[in-house]
Amino acid sequence: MFRETSSYQLQDINPRIFWDMELGSLDYERNAPLIIQRVLEYGDLSDWYAIKKHYGLDRIVAISEGFRSLDPVAVAWLCCLSNAKKEDFRCYRIAQSFPTLWNS
């Protein structure tokens, strides 16, 4: 089903994640926040392995903590894999500032 984690490459990320841009025009270092956010929100496990191998877990968490918006499931995923707390994430603090009525 999935290859050994050492064989995943950043170039192997599914192009459907970047439906609105040219995949070849991405600079993997300069556009790291965009790539990480898209993979966390729209990618599958093989895409996760690719960014984890390229960027490393600590850098992914550090970049993700600064996002204004991130799917709550992605925040929970990162918290489970690292020692981060959900309160460390900017998107979580912003969501707490604007509570929804009746959990809608």
Show the helix and strand layout.
Blueprint: H1 32-42, H2 45-55, H3 57-64, H4 72-81, H5 90-97
Written description of the protein model:
With 104 residues, this protein is an all-alpha fold. The protein has one domain (5-103). The protein has helices spanning 32-42, 45-55, 57-64, 72-81, 90-97. The protein is globular.
Radius of gyration, whole Å: 15 Å
What's the order of the H and E elements? Answer: HHHHH
Please report the number of helical segments. 5
Largest pleated sheet: none
Residue runs with pLDDT of under 50 for 5 or more positions: none
Strand content: under 5%
Would you report the number of β strands? 0
Helix content: 40-55%
Distance between the termini: 37 Å
Q: Structurally, how many domains make up the residues?
A: 1
- Mean pLDDT over all positions: 88
The coarse silhouette is globular
Category from helices, strands and their pairing: mainly alpha
Characteristics of this structure?
104 residues, mainly alpha, 5 helices, 0% strand, globular
Summarize the structure.
The protein has helices at 32-42, 45-55, 57-64, 72-81, 90-97. The chain has 104 residues and is an all-alpha fold. It has one domain (5-103).
